[in-house]
Amino acid sequence: MLTFQCSAVIHNPTKSLGVMEIKKCIDALTVFARTVPQTLDIIPLHAALTPKEQNSVFAPARKGVRKIVVATNVAETSITMQVPTLV
After folding, report:
1. What pLDDT sits at residue 27?
2. Which domains are seen in the chain, by residue range?
3. DSSP E strand stretches across the chain
């Protein structure tokens, strides 16, 4: 089990999110991020990413930045989050 710290993890417990659904969710969050004063770091997590891209979820969020991970259910069950604000 790998551990990382973030503000929120987004997944759908009733339906497995695929790469296309994750991209759509990230697109919607990116539009939303333009409307809020706080900076959001929106990160995908799924098996089609390179190991380097997958490891980016473990980098600490910059000060004052909310880190949001949009994950498949398989990716989510393979990691442990430290004190997420939202799931």
Report:
1. 92
2. 2-82 (3.40.50.300)
3. 2-5, 8-10, 39-45, 65-71, 79-82
